[in-house]
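task queued by scheduler; priority normal; single chain, no ligands, no partner chains; default sampling; output format set to C-alpha coordinates
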Amino acid sequence: MQELENILEEIKDMLEDNKVIELDSDGTLNKCVIDVKLAWSSIKDIIRKHRNDGWIPIGERLPDVGERIIVCNEKGFRCEAMMTEKGKYFRYGLELGELFGQKIVAWRPLPEPYCPESKEPEERKEWKERILRDFMKKGER
Protein backbone atom coordinates (compact mmCIF):
# COMPACT_ATOMS: atom_id res chain seq x y z
CA MET A 1 0.00 0.00 0.00
CA GLN A 2 2.88 2.36 0.79
CA GLU A 3 4.18 1.98 -2.79
CA LEU A 4 0.83 3.06 -4.23
CA GLU A 5 0.78 6.08 -1.93
CA ASN A 6 4.28 7.01 -3.13
CA ILE A 7 3.16 6.76 -6.77
CA LEU A 8 0.07 8.90 -6.15
CA GLU A 9 2.12 11.50 -4.25
CA GLU A 10 4.63 11.70 -7.11
CA ILE A 11 1.81 12.07 -9.67
CA LYS A 12 0.18 14.80 -7.56
CA ASP A 13 3.49 16.70 -7.32
CA MET A 14 4.08 16.38 -11.07
CA LEU A 15 0.59 17.71 -11.85
CA GLU A 16 1.05 20.56 -9.37
CA ASP A 17 4.39 21.51 -10.95
CA ASN A 18 2.98 21.47 -14.51
CA LYS A 19 -0.32 23.28 -14.17
CA VAL A 20 -0.91 26.72 -15.68
CA ILE A 21 -3.23 29.04 -13.79
CA GLU A 22 -4.94 32.05 -15.33
CA LEU A 23 -6.45 34.71 -13.08
CA ASP A 24 -9.04 37.36 -13.91
CA SER A 25 -8.16 41.03 -13.44
CA ASP A 26 -9.71 40.91 -9.96
CA GLY A 27 -7.45 37.99 -8.97
CA THR A 28 -10.08 35.25 -9.07
CA LEU A 29 -9.29 31.97 -10.76
CA ASN A 30 -10.33 31.99 -14.41
CA LYS A 31 -8.97 28.58 -15.41
CA CYS A 32 -6.39 25.96 -14.54
CA VAL A 33 -4.80 24.13 -17.47
CA ILE A 34 -2.74 20.94 -17.53
CA ASP A 35 -1.05 19.63 -20.69
CA VAL A 36 -2.75 16.22 -20.93
CA LYS A 37 -0.13 14.69 -23.25
CA LEU A 38 2.72 15.75 -20.96
CA ALA A 39 0.80 14.61 -17.88
CA TRP A 40 -0.03 11.21 -19.39
CA SER A 41 3.59 10.66 -20.47
CA SER A 42 4.84 11.67 -17.02
CA ILE A 43 2.33 9.43 -15.26
CA LYS A 44 3.41 6.44 -17.37
CA ASP A 45 7.09 7.17 -16.53
CA ILE A 46 6.31 7.40 -12.81
CA ILE A 47 4.40 4.11 -12.80
CA ARG A 48 7.07 2.37 -14.91
CA LYS A 49 9.79 3.59 -12.54
CA HIS A 50 7.98 2.17 -9.52
CA ARG A 51 6.96 -1.06 -11.24
CA ASN A 52 10.58 -1.86 -12.09
CA ASP A 53 11.91 -0.47 -8.81
CA GLY A 54 13.76 2.22 -10.76
CA TRP A 55 15.33 -0.11 -13.37
CA ILE A 56 15.28 1.29 -16.92
CA PRO A 57 15.50 -1.20 -19.81
CA ILE A 58 18.41 -0.47 -22.18
CA GLY A 59 15.98 -0.53 -25.13
CA GLU A 60 13.82 2.15 -23.53
CA ARG A 61 16.46 4.75 -22.63
CA LEU A 62 20.23 4.94 -22.17
CA PRO A 63 22.00 6.69 -19.29
CA ASP A 64 23.81 9.97 -19.79
CA VAL A 65 27.45 9.59 -20.84
CA GLY A 66 29.67 9.57 -17.76
CA GLU A 67 26.78 9.09 -15.32
CA ARG A 68 27.56 6.62 -12.53
CA ILE A 69 24.91 3.91 -12.68
CA ILE A 70 24.14 0.34 -11.70
CA VAL A 71 23.80 -2.12 -14.60
CA CYS A 72 22.07 -5.50 -14.58
CA ASN A 73 22.67 -8.44 -16.93
CA GLU A 74 20.23 -11.14 -18.11
CA LYS A 75 21.03 -13.34 -15.10
CA GLY A 76 20.39 -10.53 -12.59
CA PHE A 77 24.04 -9.79 -11.72
CA ARG A 78 24.45 -6.10 -10.87
CA CYS A 79 27.42 -3.78 -10.54
CA GLU A 80 28.29 -0.12 -10.72
CA ALA A 81 29.36 1.17 -14.13
CA MET A 82 29.63 4.22 -16.35
CA MET A 83 28.70 4.56 -20.04
CA THR A 84 31.06 6.16 -22.59
CA GLU A 85 30.28 8.17 -25.74
CA LYS A 86 30.60 4.95 -27.75
CA GLY A 87 27.90 3.21 -25.69
CA LYS A 88 30.34 0.92 -23.89
CA TYR A 89 30.15 0.29 -20.15
CA PHE A 90 33.18 0.60 -17.89
CA ARG A 91 33.85 -0.26 -14.27
CA TYR A 92 37.04 0.92 -12.58
CA GLY A 93 38.55 1.66 -15.99
CA LEU A 94 37.85 -1.81 -17.41
CA GLU A 95 35.36 -2.34 -20.22
CA LEU A 96 32.52 -4.59 -19.12
CA GLY A 97 31.46 -5.64 -22.62
CA GLU A 98 29.00 -8.42 -22.01
CA LEU A 99 28.95 -8.60 -18.26
CA PHE A 100 30.32 -12.05 -17.39
CA GLY A 101 29.12 -13.43 -20.71
CA GLN A 102 25.62 -11.96 -20.38
CA LYS A 103 24.05 -9.00 -22.15
CA ILE A 104 23.37 -5.88 -20.06
CA VAL A 105 19.59 -5.43 -20.11
CA ALA A 106 18.82 -2.60 -17.69
CA TRP A 107 20.34 0.21 -15.66
CA ARG A 108 19.37 2.55 -12.85
CA PRO A 109 20.89 5.66 -11.27
CA LEU A 110 22.93 5.16 -8.13
CA PRO A 111 20.81 5.76 -5.04
CA GLU A 112 21.59 8.68 -2.79
CA PRO A 113 24.12 7.81 -0.07
CA TYR A 114 22.73 6.93 3.34
CA CYS A 115 22.00 9.93 5.49
CA PRO A 116 20.48 9.70 8.97
CA GLU A 117 16.84 10.84 8.95
CA SER A 118 17.51 13.18 11.85
CA LYS A 119 19.42 15.59 9.63
CA GLU A 120 17.61 18.60 8.16
CA PRO A 121 17.73 19.07 4.32
CA GLU A 122 20.58 21.60 4.45
CA GLU A 123 22.57 19.40 6.86
CA ARG A 124 21.98 16.41 4.55
CA LYS A 125 23.37 18.34 1.56
CA GLU A 126 26.49 19.32 3.51
CA TRP A 127 26.83 15.74 4.81
CA LYS A 128 26.60 14.26 1.28
CA GLU A 129 29.16 16.74 -0.05
CA ARG A 130 31.56 15.90 2.81
CA ILE A 131 31.17 12.14 2.19
CA LEU A 132 31.85 12.63 -1.55
CA ARG A 133 34.92 14.82 -0.82
CA ASP A 134 36.33 12.22 1.58
CA PHE A 135 35.70 9.43 -0.92
CA MET A 136 37.42 11.34 -3.74
CA LYS A 137 40.45 12.06 -1.49
CA LYS A 138 40.84 8.34 -0.78
CA GLY A 139 40.78 7.66 -4.54
CA GLU A 140 43.69 10.08 -5.09
CA ARG A 141 46.04 8.07 -2.85
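post-processing summary
- The chain has a mean pLDDT of 78.
- The CA atoms of residues 70 and 80 lie 4 Å apart.
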